[in-house]
Amino acid sequence: MLISQDKDSSMNILQNISLKGYNTFGIDKKAKYFSIAKTVEELKELLAWAKVNATEVLILGGGSNILLTQDLDFLVIKNELEGIHVIAENEETILLEVGAGVIWHDLVDYSIEHNWGGIENLSLIPGTVGASPMQNIGAYGVEIKEVFESLTALDRADLSIKIFDAKACQFGYRESAFKHELKNKFVICSVTFRLQKNPEFKISYGAIQETLAERGIKELSLKVISDAIISIRKSKLPDSKVIGNAGSFFKNPTLDKSKYEELKEKYPSIPGYENESGVKVPAAWLIEQAGWKGKRIGEVGVHQNQPLVLVNYGNGEGEEIVKLSKEIQRSIAEKFGVELSPEVNFV
Known about the structure:
Blueprint: E1 2-5, E2 12-18, E3 30-37, H1 40-52, E4 57-60, E5 66-67, E6 72-79, E7 84-89, E8 93-99, H2 104-113, H3 131-135, E9 138-139, E10 142-143, E11 148-155, E12 161-165, H4 166-169, E13 186-196, H5 208-214, H6 222-236, E14 244-248, E15 254-255, H7 257-266, E16 273-275, E17 278-280, H8 283-289, E18 296-297, E19 300-302, E20 309-312, H9 318-336, E21 345-346
Parallel strand pairs: 3-6, 4-6, 5-21
Antiparallel strand pairs: 1-2, 2-3, 7-8, 8-13, 9-10, 11-12, 11-13, 14-20, 15-17, 16-17, 18-19, 19-20
């Protein structure tokens, strides 16, 4: 039912809408109020309406990093702000401002078509551009903070536009200020990236080199690297259109070196990658060693090819996935003395 369509506004607010098609887990929960914002003005109108009606607001992008655990008794706004614009360039780099509602992989394809490098290793990551700085998305040796220039965001309190640079975003491993002290205070409207006109190819991480060799690739390009990464991701990760999931459910934990060495003595095959904070250990390895790979409990489970991915086989509930994730966390803590943190946001 349509409850609001102002004469001088394009604002449409619907009631009791199923969110099953708006989250990649495919969880069937309802939003009391639902609307789509395609412009900043529409966003402002919707936030103002929510304030007048004293209702909470959830901003939804691609729905690829949320787990719905309940019906939502407030307003859900689907952020569909579009647009890809060159705002500055020189001989080496180009500044590209992108609407928060643009599909992330569409931006990757666009940059490859123009031979602008920097995000090709992030091919096929689900979600929208607006979520990329919130999560500081990363894959195959690249994180968004490396190409991030700034973002514009709408202040929910006074509906003013503010600009955040990389320092203000406080990027960390799958972290930013928008997941902590700035959570639910701003709506990201656009993100500006600095891409390279003469890109440096990064192929040392993961199975990229092996995949390129298997394909007989001798001359590198953004397209062949992207294609290789897409192939690797498809071989490991389930398609959310076929089986509900949100990609990697847990962050890879970083251990201090002494803890890692202690585990290395007990489990010689444990992989580890040194970083500025210690040694990063693949959560997938820990979960598999604890016997969770491919395990199914009712309508939810752990993916048979990638233990880092929790799945909904069709009729699972968010609460079931939460319970499964806590059991996995408990078993990893008991077996390895390592705490796993969810990458997915519970709502």
